[in-house]
Every structure is written in C-alpha cells, then in structure tokens.
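Priority: low. Protein: Flavoprotein domain-containing protein. Input follows.
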Amino acid sequence: MGEKGSGRVLVAVTGGIAAYKIPGVIRRLREAGYEVEVAATPSALRFIPEETLAVAAGRRVHTDETWWEESGRIEHITLARWADLVLVAPATADALARAAIGLGDDLVSATILAGARRVLWAPAMNPEMWQNPATARNVETLKGWGHRFVGPEEGAMASTEEEPGLGRLAGEEAIVAAVRKTLAEDPPP
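Result:
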C-alpha cells in the first residue's frame, strides 16, 4: 500500500447509499497508519449500522446521541480540534449544501462548522444531482474556503434505473491517496 501515513482522520459518514462502502475506506486508512475516528449523521445510520462502522474503526462511533456527554464534553468542538483532517464520505448533495450555508444542527455539520482544520469531501450522488447548478455552486463555495475533493467517479449507480454516470464514490485507494496528499501538502500543525 506504500508508505505509512501519519495523522488523525475523522471519517464523517453522511446519508447516502454509498455509506455501505465506508467500512472499507476506514480499514484502508487504519492500515495506512492513520488514527481514525468515525462520526455519522442520523441519516447515515439508516444506510449502514453503527456497529458495522464501529467494528471497522475499532472504537465507538460519534453520533447525535453522543454529541453532549454527561461529563460536559461537547463532541463537535473536541472532534474539530482533534482531527488533522475531516473526510466526509460519502458526501451527499445535502451535506455539501448544509456545509456551504453554514448549518450545524447535527454532529457532522457542527464539527465542520466548529473549525475543522482541513476538510476533504468524497461526493457520491446520482449524476443529475452532481451536475445540478446548486451542487456546483456549493462545491465552489467549499473549494473557496480551502476544502478539497476526491471524485466523484464515472460508473454504475446504485439504482438499477440509472445509466452509469459521474457521481459514483471514489474508490478506496483514491480516497486514501487523497488523504495522504492533503495531509502531505498541508501537514498537521
């Protein structure tokens, strides 16, 4: 797999069908030497069980249920400060829009809004959603803030009704390479 990476990566899972691919991404990141934490939106947990993500990460998953702890710790602040990179995967059109307008009403969006140092988006959505002018505007806004993107790729979509197109989640190797590149070009403080 190449040289070992170093750094702390928060994998932020949002609610798209491609969420089923994220345990493989998490395993690859861990194998590559990154310390990984996982946060998931409520909609992500409708697509993939929390337990599956926890097994891949080797630790509990941060969710809206754990957002405010009895100890008084506020997870979105803690996670934003902890992470050298927040990887949003899969990044849905909704997640991109929420970030671009500054919403912070779930743990993932609040973590990004709370000063995450670096954000890497791995979009996954149907081609029409990816090509929609609203999505393009949101992507440009986020890029203007220094956020980076990996994918989407051309390929078969989850729905059997759709033709292959641009919107498929980038492959595991491409995502890990983008994490490595992002952290190497802009090393953690």
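The helical segments are 22-31, 50-57, 75-82, 93-100, 107-113, 127-131, 133-144, 172-185. The chain has one domain: 8-185.
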